[in-house]
Amino acid sequence: MPPGDDVVLRVENLVKHFPLKGRIPFTSGGVVKAVDGVSFDLRRGETLGVVGESGCGKTTLARMLVGLEQPTSGAVRFGESVVHEAKGRELRALRRRIQIVLQDPYTSLNPRRTIREILFQPFEIHPDVLDRRRRLDRIRDLLDLVGLDADLHLDRYPHQFSGGQRQRIGIARALALQPDVIVCDEPVSALDVSVQAQVVNLLERLQEELGVAYVFIAHDLSVVRHISDRVAVMYLGKLVETGPEASLYDTPRHPYTKALLSAVPVPEPAGRGQRQRILLTGDPPSPVNPPSGCRFRTRCWQATETCATTEPPLAAGVHPVACHFPLAA
Amino acid sequence: MSLLEIDDLRVAFPGPTGPINAVNGVSLKVDAGQTLAILGESGSGKSVTAQAVMGILDTPPARISGAVRLHGRELLTLPRKQRDRISGEEIGMVFQDAMAALNPVFTVGHQIMEVLRVRRGMSRADARRRAVELVDRVRIPAAKDRVRDYPHQFSGGMRQRIMIALAISLEPDLLIADEPTTALDVTVQAQVMELLAEIQRDSGMGLLLITHDLGVVAEVADDVAVMYAGRLVEQGTVEQIFDGPAHPYTEGLLASMPRVDRRDDVLYAIPGAPPNPARLPAGCPFHLRCPRATDECRTALPLLEALPANRASACHHHEEVLGATRR
Predict the structure, then answer these.
(1) Which of B46, B139, B179, B186 to mutate to probe the A interface, most A CBs <10 Å?
(2) Are A267 and B242 an interchain contact pair (Cβ–Cβ within 8 Å)?
(3) Furthest-apart CA pair in chain B: how many Å?
């Protein structure tokens, strides 16, 4: 079934297992279940935030969405196409529609190319998008859009820019081909605190002006709340709860979401000591050997026998939760 | 007399076009049992300040002046050997990257035992017993077995705990923690900060916390010193700083931070980027990014000025800022 009118990206039961080498050569050492059955719809012009701790599979998910990683099973659908089955012309068209902004603005720009060359490149790969004579104008518009000065900056190299400016260049590059979807993988976490807000505001303004949809992947729950319309919480390769931003943050229903939110420090010393904090014990288990049943049960304070034997599914609905004993809304 | 007194500390490094003043006249105090947070972004000089106190900056190339007193005793002029003894015994250190701070080829037990045997002259058996106690103290399950493990066999949060165990092994009076939770996930960060607070309550040591994270500061600090471009720009209690900042930089930082407990429509964004310490603008180092800058700010450097209620701000317009931010 092709996605409906307002759905731009449909993710169906996406799985990625990385095989491990065994201790003895040519044997298998099991698999890392990085992403283990993730489904969601991304609607036109909306921002879906994906949060989770390191190792939960956020980045592997991002890489599969843009076709940089081949899934073990499942599908990413864009219109009539399936991202990992497309070839040739169809694949090139897809790549144009789904772009990515990476975390580290220091390594995601080629240090030997000027900004002019970096921004011309998308048009060299997709020459039919824009007539050769109009490309420079487009690049100037793009720089203007992300708040850089074309006259001043066009012929500079990446090392001549600050981190925040480099991230703007990365965003301009992602926007060059007028995509429908931009996957942002930790786009502000490498930036200084005082610069993060600039980039977050820029992404919001661009969405308003261009109607592009974001998948915004980050570990910073405050930034995700600010920018997202809907939020998905990931734990050990699975989504445990998804919902509209306000309802998920104000009335979390999965114990993991609640613990995660309660661990975020609030910049208000007045309420210190009164806030209810759930301290999870230990670290997330290894994705090579995830716990049976519910994957969170080893750190959950209300786990029962059912949780060890039966895996709770993520139901459909506005604010679904994968838990046998969801918290009261 | 405070536990730690830093007086007009200056640290300069040689640069291609003359000295780079990484720290420019910083004065601070930490009392026993208190937590002072130094808040700043990259290049603000917060880590260099901590390193100068710890005595781990190489001189040369660094040039350090001013005074650093622990229990009233001047550290900067001490001969190397004595300095190292004091730094080792009375100051504990926790760094951001535990994998780099721990020795990868020795077990963690060995590394803790080594400290106890060299500094305290303990026997092997006593040192082992104490190492297990310390590892248990930082809440690592099965401490007796885990002391035989190597650093790479621990998770990030656990390694940070090992480093804390090592830092408190000689019962220091002062603990300096440089971004101790920056590399950790929030759930693990909360565990580690809770552990530090608990150890501090039990031992009464002073804590100098270096961080860029406003949330962490609000949760654990008693006093806050905000650094920008190598200078202190604001100083006060944590309530003073968060409830009514007296410097536009602090004001901007607080306004630019999204909150997890509510949603704001638009974030305030401080324009521009932190300045390169090698090329500071004339006048106030923040004036290029400051919405309140006037001609005075472009020419005259504002000095840190004492304000009522034991706080301080380095801004020509601190009264205006206070008037606007005080609730």
Answers:
(1) B186
(2) yes
(3) 68
Q: Report the gap between the CA of B283 and the closest CA in chain A (Å).
A: 21
Query: Domain extents for chain B?
Result: 244-327
Residue of B239, B263, B274 lying closest to A226 (CB–CB): B263
Residue A280 has pLDDT above 90, yes or no: no
DSSP per-residue letters across B8-23: EEEEEEEETTEEEEEE
pLDDT band at A152 (very low <50, low <70, confident <90, very high): confident
User: Are A219 and B254 inside 8 Å of each other by CB?
Assistant: no
For chain A, what is the radius of gyration of the CA atoms?
Answer: 21
Place of tokens 């049960």: A297
Q: State the smallest CA–CA distance between residue B191 and chain A in angstroms.
A: 7
Specify if A323 maps to a domain: no
* Helices within A211-254 (DSSP H only): 221-227, 245-250
pLDDT of residue A3: 47
| A264: containing domain | 7-309
- The confidence score (pLDDT) of residue A282 equals 72
Contact A267 B263 (CB under 8 A): no
Structure tokens at A299: 């750190």
**Number of domains into which chain A is organized:** 1
The answer as to whether A329 is a domain residue is: no
Residue A303 lies inside a defined structural domain of this protein: yes
Mean pLDDT (chain A) is 88
Pairing of the two strands A181-185 and A213-218 = parallel
Domain membership of residue A321 (yes or no) is no
Could you tell me the pTM of the whole model?
Answer: 0.86
A88 dihedral zone (left: phi>0; alpha: psi -120 to 50; beta): left
Q: What is the pLDDT of residues B293-323, one digit of tens each?
A: 899 999 989 999 888 888 999 999 888 888 8
Instruction: CATH number of the domain at A17, please.
Output: 3.40.50.300
